[in-house]
Structures are given as structure tokens and as C-alpha cells.
Design brief:
four-stranded mixed β-sheet; Immunoglobulin-like; elongated; 25% helix; alpha+beta
Length: 293
């Protein structure tokens, strides 16, 4: 009898410790959680006559299993034309704060000459750039910006290149979908039209969806896939292009909901059977006592 009672106590403790937290957590998880991270095109810090005439961007992404680091290699090449007299200007490029080792791996070149840079954090409410970002894909009120100063000669173009290697550490995060995006809307901060190409070269886990705001060219590459968007001498009306990874597992939600009532029902059945057996044994003991008398 003591063993049965001990078993019942342990059983109830396991239900309370395991069943309730899982059930409560997953019953709240009707809202699908999404995480976003990305970077974007250079834009001028202030209004100016400069024109970005061409941009070519490649993001190489290595994504494996859920809760593993996602590695990103980035290279961007931008051509900026100055139609007026020589001038100096400050340029910025937006980043999400999730990029690890970004600041130590970043390299900026202007006309093939490496130049210094710095990173600053801007609050959206205090910046003039809100219209160039998609708020649906920006969950924080601030972002990290790369800052670089450049001299633009009169009636001439310069080429700016920047690159970095970083990773997104998602090992301690929990979400159902991950969006990796690139801000193309920042091109509207420049005067005139632009020809731009943005390509995601993806290795490992295949994206489950991608940006459909613009025709996307999907092609096979060695051990991976390429997702590319292009604009030819035009104004880019989209704010972002992106790829999305799904880690959503509906069974992770339904199993606890099914499991908890089953375990709870098991307790009720166990108690009922145990009580019935106890009463039966008591009646048997009374009968035996009467017979012995």
C-alpha cells in the first residue's frame, strides 16, 4: 500500500512539474513568434544632390538546424555620382544588432582604398529615415548604423565597397520563423533612379519562403540555391527583400495539449481503481473477521 501511495505522489509531482508548465506555455503560444534580422544599402545622412546609380549586393548564408548559428558573408558594391561641385558627405548603412563580430570583421573601401568607419546606434524616433524601412520587419526601436565619411569629386562617380563576415547566434532564442532581410528602400534616399541587384546565396537549410514584392529569380548553385532581385534604372518602391526559415512544429503545440489531459485522466483512473481495490479488500477483511468469530 505504501508503495502505491508513493507511486501516486511521484506521479502527481511529475504532472505538476512537467504537465502544467508545458501546457500553460503552449496554450499561450497561439501567437506565432517571428524573428527578423538584416542589413541594408548605404544612404546619405542628410539631404544632398548625390545619386546612387548602381548597387550590387551578395549575401552568402549558411543555415543549418534549429538553434544553431547562422553564418553570413556580405559584400556590397555601390556607385555614387555627384552632379555638382566637390563635396564631403557622411554615409550610413543599417544593421540589426544580432550580427556578432560585425564590427571587427567589417571592411570599407572607397576607390579601392581602405577607409576608417565607426558604428553608432540610432533611435528611429530621432532619425529621418523611417520611410525607408519596413516596420513589419523591424521589431526594435533602434538599429546599429555603420558611419563613413567620403569625398565626392565634382561631376564624377566614386565606388564604395564594404564587406563583413558575421553570425547570428540563435542558440538561446525561441521562435517559429526567422526572416533575414535586406533594406532596399534606402535607395530612395538618393536622387534619381538606380540599377540594383540583391542576391542571397543560401547553403544548408533551404528557405521556406521569400520576398514576393518583386519578381525573384531562383536558381541552383553548387550545394545551394540563389535568390536574386533586380531593378534596372528605376525607383525601388519596395522597402525590403528577404528569405524566411520556418522552425514551426505544430506537434510541439498539440502534444502537450493531448498529453496533459491523458496524464490527468490517468491519475483519476488510478485513484478510482485504487479506492475500489481498497474497499474490496476492506470488505474481504470484514467477512474473514466475521467467519473467524
Amino acid at each position: 500500500m505504501k508503495k502505491r501511495r508513493l507511486f501516486l505522489v511521484v506521479y502527481i509531482i511529475l504532472i505538476v512539474e512537467l504537465g502544467f508548465p508545458i501546457h500553460i506555455r503552449d496554450s499561450k503560444a497561439d501567437v506565432v513568434t517571428t524573428h527578423e534580422t538584416g542589413t541594408g544599402t548605404f544612404l546619405p545622412e542628410e539631404n544632398c544632390p548625390l545619386m546612387m546609380t548602381n548597387a550590387n549586393v551578395i549575401l552568402i548564408i549558411g543555415a543549418k538546424a534549429y538553434l544553431e548559428r547562422i553564418y553570413i558573408s556580405f559584400s556590397g558594391n555601390y556607385t555614387i555620382y555627384n552632379p555638382t561641385e566637390s563635396m564631403n558627405s557622411t554615409l550610413i548603412a543599417p544593421f540589426s544588432s544580432e550580427f556578432e563580430i560585425l564590427e571587427s570583421s567589417c571592411a570599407i573601401k572607397i576607390e579601392n582604398t581602405t577607409v576608417p568607419y565607426e558604428f553608432l546606434e540610432y533611435n528611429y524616433e530621432d532619425s529621418p529615415w523611417e520611410e525607408y524601412f519596413d516596420w513589419e520587419y523591424v521589431r526594435t526601436w533602434s538599429r546599429l548604423f555603420l558611419i563613413v565619411n567620403a569625398t565626392f569629386p565634382e561631376n564624377d562617380s566614386i565606388t564604395i565597397e564594404y564587406s563583413f563576415i558575421a553570425y547570428i547566434d540563435i542558440m538561446d532564442r525561441s521562435f517559429d520563423y526567422l526572416n533575414i532581410y535586406y533594406d532596399v528602400g534606402t535607395s530612395r534616399a538618393w536622387n534619381g533612379t538606380i540599377s540594383e541587384r540583391v542576391e542571397f546565396k543560401v547553403y544548408g537549410k533551404t528557405p521556406d519562403s521569400y520576398s514576393s514584392s518583386r519578381n525573384c529569380t531562383i536558381s541552383d548553385i553548387t550545394n545551394g540555391k540563389s535568390y536574386a532581385w533586380e531593378w534596372e534604372d528605376e525607383i525601388i518602391n519596395s522597402n525590403i527583400v528577404y528569405i524566411t526559415y520556418s522552425y514551426y512544429n505544430p506537434w510541439a503545440r498539440f502534444v502537450p495539449i493531448i498529453l496533459f489531459p491523458s496524464l490527468f485522466g490517468g491519475i483519476i483512473i488510478f485513484v478510482a481503481l485504487n479506492s475500489t481495490k481498497k474497499k474490496r479488500n476492506e470488505r474481504k477483511a470484514r467477512r474473514e473477521l466475521r467467519h473467524s468469530n
